[in-house]
Amino acid sequence: MRLSSSAFSEGGVIPRRFTCDGENLSPPLYWSEAPPGTRSFVLLCDDPDAPAGVWRHWAVYDIPADRTDLAEGAGRRGDGKGLRQAVNDFGEAAYGGPCPPHGHGRHHYRFRLLALSIDRLVVSARASCVDVERQAHKNLIAEAVLVATYQR
Fold first, then answer.
1. Residue of 118, 117, 107, 88 whose CA lies nearest to 26
2. Could you tell me if 99 and 107 are in contact, meaning their C-beta atoms sit under 8 angstroms apart?
3. In the CATH hierarchy, which fold is given to the domain comprising 2-150?
4. Model confidence over 107-120: pLDDT tens digits?
5. Distance (Å, rounded) from C-alpha 137 to C-alpha 116?
6. Reported pTM
7. Where are the domains of the chain?
């Protein structure tokens, strides 16, 4: 399975517009080569370099198996397009762009696509990104990762 973005490449720099310093839009993401038996996807974004430990920026879940992308800005709060989004570490059920502490150096942002063997996760309406990830791993078939960086 492959995960990519037209906004940045693997190991590249995330453009400002997709961060808290810009428009805070979720980047466009595309995937291909889902394994047989995939019934849904989960998309996660986190920062393992955060000072207090992993900071969770986004989780989108119950993405239908026939879908192959998330458009730019898909992570807006209340976008009305049927995406289910978990509560991130900013306290929002939406995308929260890279926002590392000033002068903390380069942070790596992991966008992870999980292919699942079930259609829907059993989580509460206000599930956290951690809750979604924990439930997704119980039904994981495959994972694709795209890592990019940002610093302030």
1. 88
2. no
3. Phosphatidylethanolamine-binding Protein (3.90.280)
4. 999 999 999 999 99
5. 8
6. 0.95
7. 2-150
